[in-house]
Specification:
Blueprint: E1 2-6, H1 15-25, E2 31-36, E3 39-42, H2 46-50, E4 59-65, H3 69-81
Antiparallel strand pairs: 1-4, 2-3, 2-4
């Protein structure tokens, strides 16, 4: 399963937002990947997600695979769409 989502938080994928994302992935057993441009990384690795460098307005693809792929995808997309809880 996959869904395109736009980064809406001002600082993009930075340490705090990536930490929130990776922390949320730990709630699920499914494999999680993030694609930005031609690069695909393990969504459960802070270091790998940080290498993407996605900024405000960039579109990423969140991809999940496994027994709880649908709830994982929904939760992760919601987190991104809500700006990782940042003001």
């Amino acid at each position: 399963m996959e869904k395109k989502v736009v980064i809406i938080n001002e600082k993009g994928l930075h340490v705090r937002s990536v930490g929130e994302f990776v922390s949320k992935t730990k709630d699920f057993k499914s494999k999680v990947e993030i694609q930005f441009n031609d690069k695909i990384v393990n969504g459960k690795s802070v270091m790998m997600v940080m290498t993407l460098g996605a900024k405000l307005g960039d579109e990423i693809i969140v991809r999940t695979e496994g027994e709880d792929a649908e709830p994982a995808l929904n939760a992760l997309v919601e987190l991104v769409e809500n700006g990782f809880g940042e003001e």
